[in-house]
Amino acid sequence: MSATRAVVIGGGVAGVTAALDLADRAVDVTLVEVRPRLGGAAYSFERDGLALDNGQHVFLRCCTDYRALLDRIGGSGGVELQSRLEIPVLRPGHAPALLRRSRLPAPGHLGPALLRYGHLSVRERIGVARAALKLARVDPARDDETFGKWLAAHGQSPRAIANLWDLIALPTLNLPAAQASLGLGAFVFQEGLLRGAAAGDIGTHRAPLGEIIGAPALRTLQRSGVDVRLRWRAQEVERDGERFEVRGEQDDLTADAVVLAVPHPRAAAIMPSELRVAAAAFEGLGSSPIVNVHVVYDRHVLDHRFAAGVDSPVQYVFDRTPADWDDERQYVAVSLSGAELEVAMRTEELRERYVPALAELLPRAGNAEVLIFAVTREHAATFRAAPGTRALRPSARTSVPGFALAGAWTATNWPATLEGAARSGHAAASVAMEHIRGL
Ligand SMILES: Cc1cc2nc3c(=O)[nH]c(=O)nc-3n(C[C@H](O)[C@H](O)[C@H](O)COP(=O)(O)OP(=O)(O)OC[C@H]3O[C@@H](n4cnc5c(N)ncnc54)[C@H](O)[C@@H]3O)c2cc1C
Hints:
Elements: E1 2-3, E2 6-9, H1 13-24, E3 29-33, E4 44-47, E5 50-53, E6 58-60, H2 64-73, E7 79-81, E8 86-90, E9 97-100, H3 111-115, H4 122-135, H5 147-153, H6 158-173, H7 182-194, E10 202-205, H8 209-223, E11 227-230, E12 234-240, E13 243-248, E14 252-255, E15 257-260, H9 264-270, H10 276-282, E16 288-297, E17 306-309, E18 316-319, E19 330-336, H11 347-361, E20 370-382, E21 403-405, H12 418-438
Parallel strand pairs: 1-14, 2-3, 2-15, 3-11, 8-17, 15-21
Antiparallel strand pairs: 4-5, 6-10, 7-10, 8-9, 12-13, 13-14, 16-19, 16-20, 17-18, 18-19
Helix pairs in contact: 1-8, 1-12, 2-12, 5-7, 6-7, 9-10
The structure holds flavin-adenine dinucleotide.
C-alpha cells in the first residue's frame, strides 16, 4: 500500500485540471485512470492508418479555463481559434449563407449577418433578432421547460428553430432545442453570443485530440511531479477516520483528500457509502449520444474549415485532412449531436444516408470516390441536458470533508463541455485543498 496526500480518480479534462491545481499547490498527487491514456471523452485513435477523433470537439473564445489548460499543457499549437466568428451554412440547391460577426459590439455584432441570412425569410430574421434580445434576459436557472417551447412562445417558427437556433443549440447542448433545458439554452446564447462580441469565436482541434490533450497532459502531470497510474481502475473509496482508502483492482491508495472525476454513471459506485444515497439522484441525468461519420475522398470537396448544414441530415462537417497529406485527398468528418437515431444505425445505413447527403451539400463530392468510410459512436457522450437537470447536478463540495466531485456533469452552470470539465476540476481542487490545509 502506498501513501499519498491527494488522489484524483479519472484522467479526463476535469481530473487533469484538478491534479495540476493540487500539484501547483505542493500537494503530493496520484492520478489514476482506468484506460491506457489520458483525455477521457476527448480522444483519438488510429483506424486504416488514419488518426480519428472520437468526435469533433469545438470550443469558443469564452472557454477561458479550457484554453488556459491547453496553454498549460502545451496543446494550444494543435488548435485554431477564429479571429472572428464565422459559420458557413450550406443548404442543398442554395447559395451558402455566412453567419459572421461584424465589428459592432454585442449584441449588435450578429445583426448584419442575421439580416442577410438567406435560409430564413425576412420576417423570420427580424423575429430571431427580437427573441435573441429577450433571451438575453432569461434566468439561466430556469429549468422548468424546454428551450424549444420558449422559442415557439416567442414567435419562432419550426424553420427558424431548425435553420438557426439549433445550429448553436444542438452542438453545445447535445440535444435539439425541442428537448433541451431553457436555462442551459439561455446560458449558451448569453455566454457565447450575446454578452461579448468575441466570446463566440470558434476554436477547432486541427491535430488529433490525443496529441492536443492526452499526451501533453501526461507529460505535464509527470513534469509537475504527479504520479500518473494508467490502467488503474478505482473500485471504491472508503473513509478510514480522517483519511480515505481508494481501492483498486490490485493496489490500494491512502489519501487525505480525493477528487472523483469520472462520468456520472460510474461515480455512485465509487463514492464513500454515506454519499451513495445522494448519488442516486445524479444517475437521473441520463445521457445523450454523438455520432461522427468520417469520409476520405480522393479529391478536395469542402472549401471551409467547417460548415453547418440545414435541410440536410448533415449537422456540421469539418475538414480534418492531416497536415502532412500532400495529394488531392480530403478527410471530412460529419458531427451529429443528439444522435438518438443515428447511434442505432449500422455503418452501411449511415453510408447510404450520408454519402448522398454530403454530395448534395458539397457538389464536388458527387463525383468523388470514397476511399475510407468510418463511423464513431459515443452512446453516452454527455449527460442529457433536458429540463430538470439543474437540480440533479451536484456541486464539487460533498458532505464528506475532503471528498470532492469533478466532471462536466457537476454543477458548473455550463453544459457538458471541455470548459465545464476544466472549471469543475478547478472547483474540486479548491475543495480538496481547503481540507488539506485544515488538517
Ligand atoms: C463525441 C463527443 C463530442 C464532444 N464534443 C464536444 C465539443 O465539441 N465541445 C465540448 O466542449 N465538449 C464536447 N464533448 C464533451 C466533452 O468531451 C466532455 O464534456 C469532457 O471531455 C468531459 O470531461 P470529464 O473530465 O468531465 O470526463 P471524462 O472525459 O469522461 O473523464 C472521466 C475519466 O474517468 C475515467 N474513469 C472512469 N471510471 C474510472 C475508474 N473506476 N477508475 C479510474 N478512472 C476511471 C474514464 O476512463 C475517463 O478517462 C464531446 C464529447 C464527446 C464524447
